[in-house]
Amino acid sequence: MISLIATTWLALATAAISPGPNLVAVASRGLGSGRKSALIVASGLACGAFLWSFLTAFGLGSLFGTYPQLLGILGLLGGAYLTWLGIKGWRAALTGKGGQIVPKSGQGPLGDFLHGLTVTSTNPKVALLWASLSTFVGPAITQWSYLILFTTGSTVIIFVIYGTYGWIFSTGQARGIYRRFQRASEAVFGSLFGGLGVFMINRSF
Question: Which residue did the predictor score with more confidence, 40 or 71?
Answer without folding.
Answer: 40
